[in-house]
Queue: 3 jobs
Job 1
Amino acid sequence: MAVRRRRKFMKGHGSKGNSGDERLLSRDEWGEAQDIQGSSELILNSPIINKAQERILDQFTPKHPIAFVSPCTSTRPYTKSWKWKIFKKELTGVDFIVSSNAGIIPLEYEDSYPYLTYDARHDPMFEDLYLIYTMRSLIRFFTLKHYEYVVFNFRPSPHVMRRRKSGVVAGRYLKEHHHIQDYAVCPSKPVLKNALKAISGRKGFYDRMYPDVHPLVLDDMKDIIEKFKQ
């Protein structure tokens, strides 16, 4: 089942049409769908994506003192993915924010154009560029939006270590310059190791795809959030 799902996704990769509400960009500001479907380099430098990000920075107002940041998913809107469904169910008292090639996206904008349309294919060639843009976007967002605490859900797996580094660098900068009181990057290596050990041998697609929703990881994140609430 997992293989069939992945093949189906790859077959349609980059072929989605324009969709979404006009909360950020009116329809006459939309471009061609293929203009925001391709490599990370294309998405990171897209005028449409950048304009939507500017609108978010203008419009968005934090609802809670704690922000919870986690990477995007290929499933759109994001909350239809297994990972974001679990996060929304299990984690409370936080603003949910997506970190993506398309910028820093509070979850309330997940149905807005261009976030149902963009499609960034993974290309190792642009990993360093992605790291630079992500650090810059995180620092800018949390400098302008006033949170007390930020929890970065960037796991220490080999293929996403650059993303984790972006959270560490951004969090350190924001704290040292007094834009936030504190931050955390989770899960830690020991917590993730224990979760992966518990998952080992299972055949479930979602277990392997989303170790961040394993109870061991979720409990660790809940503890961090509760500590920040005190």
Note: Confidence is low (pLDDT under 50) at residues 1-14.
Job 2
Amino acid sequence: MATRRVSSAITREQVAKFEMVFPLIRSAHEDMAELSKKKPDAPVNETKVKLINRLLSEAKEIMSSDPIVEYVTALDEETLPTNSDAVLILGQFLQAAYQFRARHPL
């Protein structure tokens, strides 16, 4: 298996986007966690899925050169995920962000 080299330099634009997007993902994670406590198996409505996916798409773009991006995925817009599914996916993005930040000092 080939080892991918991780660049330690990221652009100022990536830093600015990171600082804007990841607090929003953290907030979405907290909101979905609260919903999941009440109704874990309830489907997320289409509007929330689109808003969350917009954030996750930006996050994937920021981390595109990092190997961690291969392990995160957006919410499925076709078969709406449950609240607990959304919490899991948002949590994975947050952990990916922490790892990305550790490898790429901002």
Note: The longest helix spans residues 12-38.
Job 3
Amino acid sequence: MKRDNSISKLQTQMTVELERYNKRIKFVVFLIIALAIGGAVFYHIVERWSYLDSLYFTVSTLTTVGYGDFTPKTNFGKVFTIANMVIGVGIVLYGLSMIAAHFIEQREEEFIEVLGGTKVKRPAKNILDKFKNFIRFENETIRKTGRNRGK
């Protein structure tokens, strides 16, 4: 009975987390599309490039590829490009890291299901926590086996 209750709590928590993740992903994708379209319109108006060339330059800038075949010639275009790089690259990298973290978390959940109830330790935040975890692991090993792990 207690196990069923904890499983339902875990499922509810996972559902809430998935909804939050979906909202964040949608927002980041919206921002990336808005940056790409906004950059394309800006470069079309200011630099007099075609929409396709403007979009190509914006996307290559946001993805940090930057082939160098197009460069802004006006001062206003250069200032906009600097701001677009700083803001846009940060948003794109945040979105990619969020997607990668989601896949890693899914993989961890699969491992937890396979292990079936095995207690998973949280990662240490600093060197002191790592040392405490190591000492705790050594003490548990000695208590369970009656001997030191290294000996």
Note: The helical segments are 2-46, 51-62, 75-115, 127-145.
